[in-house]
Every structure is written in C-alpha cells, then in structure tokens.
Amino acid sequence: MPEPPGRVRRSLRRLSLGLIGLLYVVSIPWYRETGAEPAIVLGLPDWVAVALACYVGVAILNGVAWLTTEIDDAEPVPRENPPGGGAR
Amino acid sequence: MSLATLGLVALGLYLVALLIVAGVARRARRDESPADHFLAARDLGVLVLFLTLYATTYSGNSLLGYPGEAYRRGFSWIMATGFMMSIVVVFHWVAPRLRPIAIREQFVTPGDWIKHRFAGEDRRRSLEIAVAILMTIALGNFLLAQLMAMGHVAGQVTGGTIPYWAGVVGLAAVVLFYETLGGMRAVAWTDAAQGILMLVGLSALLGWLLSQAGGLGAVTSQILVERPEAARVPDAVETANWFSTIVLLGLASVVYPQAIQRVYAARSGRALRNAFVLMTFMPLATTLVVTLIGLAAIPRFQHLGAIEADTIMPRLLGAWAAAGPGEAFLAVLVLIGALAAIMSTADSVLLSLGSVISEDLLGRSRLDPATTRLGKRIAAGLIVAMVAIALLPRFTLWRLIELKMELLIQCVPAFLIALHWPRLRAGATFWGVVVGTVVAVAAVLIDVKRIAGFHVGVLSLVLNVAVAVLLSRAAPARGAQSKTDRSRW
To answer: Which CATH architecture is the domain B3-399 placed in?
Structure first.
C-alpha cells in the first residue's frame, strides 16, 4: 500500500533538514590545513568553491523542505473591541 | 548633466514616489486598529510578502557593511552567504507552529506570544518586559545603523551636494512621514519596489566589476599576490567564528520583531510558505554578490582602515560612474537602490519599534486604536534620538550588527524553546534571559568580543538555555494543565 502523501512529505522534509545540517558542517573548512595555498576552482580558492557549492545545496534542499511544509490557517477567535472601538 | 545633478534628480523623483505610495496606502486602510497599521490587516500576498521580507532582511548593513567586511576578512566572508541562508532554515522551527496560534489569537507583537504562552504564570509580565527591552535596544541599534548608512549613501548619490548630516536628518524625516501615514501597507509596498531596484542594481555592478578585472579568476589571482592571507584556508579561530556567526545570525534573526510580525501579516499559511521558498535563494542573489563586490575591491583599494572599508560600495560606484554617461546613469540607479534598501529596513524597524514599545513594554491593548497613535508618537521620538547618535558614528556597521544580535539572541528560548517544550516556565525563561544578557553586556563593557572565535552572545545563550531548562525542570509540574499545554497553544 502506498504511503499517504502527508507521510512522504514529512519524511522528505526531515531528510532535507538533516542534509542541510550536514552541508553546513562541510561548508566550514575546519578539516583543511590552516594557511594552505589554495587551488583555484571556478575562479575561487578551492575551499571557497566547496563552501559555495554547499550553500547552493542548502538553498535547494531548504526550498524542498519549505515546499513540503504545511502551515495551517486557524480561524481567529472573535474578540470584543475595547471602548472607543477598533473599526470605523 | 553631471553625476551630482543626475543623482539629485533621481533622489527627488524617488522620494516623491515614496510619498505617493504612502498616500495610496493611507487611503487603503480599513480602520485605525493596531492590526491594520502594524500588520496591513494580515493581508500580504506571496509576492509583496516575499519582497518585503527580502528588502527588510537585506539592509544597509548588507549593502555597505558586508562588502566592507569581505574587504577586511577576505574569502572567509563567504560565510555570510551561509548565515543569511540559515535564517530561512531556522524559521522551520518557528513559523509553522507560531503562525496558526498567531492567527487564532490575533497577535500583533512578539510579546503577544509570551502573554499567550505563559498566561497565568508568575514572572510572565517580567519576561514580557525583559524581551521587549532587548528587542527595543536591538532595534534601536539596527535603526542607528540604517541612519548612518543613509547619510553615507545620500552624500554619494548627490556627489557630496547633500552632506552626511543632512542625508541622515532629511531621509529619516521622509521614512517617519510615510511610515506614520501608511503603516505596514506603505512599508510593504515600498519594500517591494525597493527590493527589485536593489536586486537589479547589485547584479549590474558586479558584472561591471568582474568585466573590468578580467573575470573572477583574475580577481582571485590578484588577491593571492597582493594579500595572500585573504585567500588562504582560515585558521581554527576563524572557522570557529564562521560556525558561531551562522548560529548567531540564524537564531537571532528569527526573533527580529519585524520578521515575527511578517509571519503574522501573511494573507495565508500558503503565502508565507511560498515566500520562504523564494527567500531561501536570495542569499545567492544578494549576499554572495555583495561579498564578491567587497573581494573585487581588495586589489582596487589597498590599505583602507576599518571604518573606511564601509565606504567601499560608494567608492566603487563613484569609479563606475566615471567610466561614461551610461555607467553614470546605472551607478545612480544602484545608489538609489542601495538607499531604497536602507530606507526599507529603517521603516520596518521603526514600525516594529512603535508596536513593541507601546504594547509589550507599556502594556497597551492590541485592540485599541489609541495604541496605534501611541506607537506613531514613540516612533517619532525614537527616530529623533537615533538621528542625534548617528551624527557621530563610532562603530563599523558589522560591529553594530554583532552587538544587536548578541542581545537579540537572548530572546531565543522565549520563542524557539517555548514553542516546542511544554515544560518551559516563564520564571525560568526570565532568569535565563537575565543571566545571558548580564554576561553578554559585561563582555561588551570589558571589550571581550569573542572567546576562541565564538561570539560572547552565543556562549551567553548556552548559559541562558541551561538556566531556563534546569529551572523549568526543577519547577513543580502543573498537573493536568501541563498535559494539555500543547493543544492549548
């Protein structure tokens, strides 16, 4: 039996958010040798190109995560206006 | 026509257009309620909501401060693209849960959430006031940064015809006028136009800079020769700071009052969601662009001082304008776009300040039209005070952002944790905010900005959360009520 679309959406959202966290960790060059001479990749130092690629990935995955997010619209609770009135 | 004349004419036309929009927004109002003035009657559709979020998020700091910081720090400032994106990521833990409650309970200010979430608890009002004070200081600081940026850009756009002080005073008066007249509607509509101007202008400037330099690779090669440390792999302190800045900006930005109020102001949950989908790509179109602009300035302007580096953008535009009449016209458009971005942030901040002080700090009703009038008067008083401070700039724009975020981040538990953890108590959250703020302020007073690369504000937040969680766990459970907390929210 196929999964209900709601569950698929929630799984996709969680997966996207998890991958975003991973990309943030990779984007920071903590694992590179400090002060190393960089190679040039796509006109940028290689560690900068890696960070940028990660942020492009974050943007795409975050877009997917938002598209799979549902934001409910509740009905407002009716309230009395104070003396002096709100509406004209 | 000279650059100064062209700039004056363009500035004049732009300001007239703003005043017309304010007049139209005034006529579009439905009533005098705070919800209509501060939230545009909760009727912002996807496009206007996206553009107002965009123009509000990308401010004078982004346009003047970020290129300056890229110039000072080099390629590691690519972190800015990451931390601006982290804001839209962190909103996943705020908007989907806060929005339905905000609509159901008709929230207007961030403090309305605290009133609702901690209703009936001891120290609820203390927490509300503490959060409102932090937000007021942070927003006041933010407004100051925008006023300083306005003064710099007004001088540049008119070739020095309008001096710094006159730019600050005159443009602050225009912002105050259209915000008071048209409220959130005027702010959102002008933001929409300002966002488009900024996006187009920045891309054109980067294109010109890279074509002049012979491409991105040539810029990088020049930096490697002239300032190699700016292109080398950063050290452990800088990478720790990179991580810390992502945390600082990501967490603190979602408790910006003006950002929270846009969550309330969306026409529907779907409109809000779609606006976030668009927003997630904007750091690539804006922050990355201004970072590359700042990097391209390294070979052009050598040995600029810390404060001088904040004038890189106007300097580059001056050079662009000198290249020919077509370039001068485009440079003026970019400057107007920059000014537009700065003014759009200032107006949003001013609007939020009026509502936060009148409702959250002074405790006025969100249903009473008198609150709207009080909010307008407070906004007027604040802008006069900030103009006075802006006339004597003492900090870099980036330092102003850091100071603001280090205070604002202390409000995070009252929103992020309170939305997800039913056991969090008002008193515990209040003491957490007090401890975090005292440590952050003490560090500023003794001039400690970072410890091993980590912002003092982020480290203070760890203490703040620890106090809030431990005291909440130690507090007696609220019996049957705690079981129903989640459904109550």
So the answer is: Up-down Bundle (1.20)
Q: Collect all residues of chain A within an 8 Å Cβ-Cβ radius of residue B75.
A: 44-45, 47-48
DSSP string over B140-181: HHHHHHHHHHHHHHHHHHTTTSS-HHHHHHHHHHHHHHHHHH
B220/A88 touch (CB, cutoff 8 Å), yes or no: no
Average pLDDT on B219-241 reads 91
Grouping H, G, I as helix, E, B as strand and the rest as coil, residue B291 is: helix
Q: Let me know: does B194 contact B344? Beta carbons within 8 Å.
A: yes
| Element containing residue B264 per DSSP (H, E) | helix B257-265
With tokens 């209703």, the residue in question is B119
Tokens 């001068």 label which residue? Answer: B328
Contact assignment for B75 to A43 by CB distance below 8 Å: no
ipTM of this predicted structure:
0.84
A34 CB within 8 Å of a chain B CB: yes
Domain ranges of chain B: 3-399
Which position has the token pair 């026409």? B267
Q: Tell me the pLDDT band of A68, cut-offs 50, 70 and 90.
A: very high
The DSSP letter of residue B447 is T
Q: With contacts defined as CB-CB under 8 Å, which chain B residues touch A34?
A: 233-236
Residue B114 near residue B260 (C-beta atoms within 8 A): no
The pTM of the full predicted model, rounded to 2 decimals, is 0.83
Asked if A59 lies within 8 A of B272 by C-beta distance, the reply is no
Residue B381 to residue B367: CA distance in whole angstroms: 23
